[in-house]
Write a structure and sequence with these properties.
Elements lengths: L2 E3 L2 E3 L6 H5 L13 H18 L23 E4 L2 E6 L6 E3 L14 E3 L4 E4 L13 E3 L4 E2 L13
Parallel strand pairs: 4-6, 5-7, 6-8, 7-9
Antiparallel strand pairs: 1-2, 3-4
Pfam families: LRR_1 (PF00560), LRRNT_2 (PF08263)
Keywords: Leucine-rich repeat, Repeat, Signal
Protein name: Leucine-rich repeat-containing N-terminal plant-type domain-containing protein
């Protein structure tokens, strides 16, 4: 049995709240509000795509942890110090992207292009939480299932 109080979920034994709520562990939480968060999310996306596409890794294979900013990576656009666009069109992507659930961590993302690939499966539900997204291109793929874009009020 778990008990949830404030920012902590308790196991059935005593835990010092000050360690969890003070900020000691808060630095481990991904907040989605910095270029470092953007970089971490893009590296997670790269890893996910490589798992799905072992033969044709495409341009995202150049994304690396040693780079100081993802704004220097191919197919990534930035506005100032935040990632605003990902363009992986015509990249021979296949597999299923519905298992990647961190797009909304890219809080300034306004453009996402995965067109002209052979991506199958459904749309990640997390995508509907990308409130700044203005351009979304998933055309010429094998995507099926429900398309829930209820939270994407800025699409044009």
């Amino acid at each position: 049995m778990f008990l949830s109080v404030g920012c902590v979920q308790f196991l059935p034994f005593w835990i010092d709240l000050s360690l969890f709520c003070s900020g000691y562990f808060a630095s481990q939480i991904v907040s989605g509000s910095s270029i470092e968060t953007d970089k971490e999310v893009l590296l997670q996306l790269k890893s996910y795509l490589i798992d799905q596409n072992k033969v044709n890794p495409c341009r995202y294979s150049a994304w690396n942890d040693s780079s100081s900013s993802p704004c220097d990576w191919p197919e990534i656009t930035c506005d100032g110090e935040r990632v605003t666009g990902i363009n992986l069109s015509n990249c021979n992507l296949s597999g299923n992207i519905s298992g990647f659930s961190n797009f909304s961590q890219l809080t300034q993302l306004d453009s996402l292009d995965f067109s002209q690939n052979t991506i199958g499966g459904g749309i990640p539900t997390d995508l509907s939480r990308c409130s700044n997204l203005r351009y979304l291109n998933l055309s010429q793929n094998l995507i099926g299932g429900e398309l829930n874009l209820a939270g994407l009020n800025n699409l044009s």
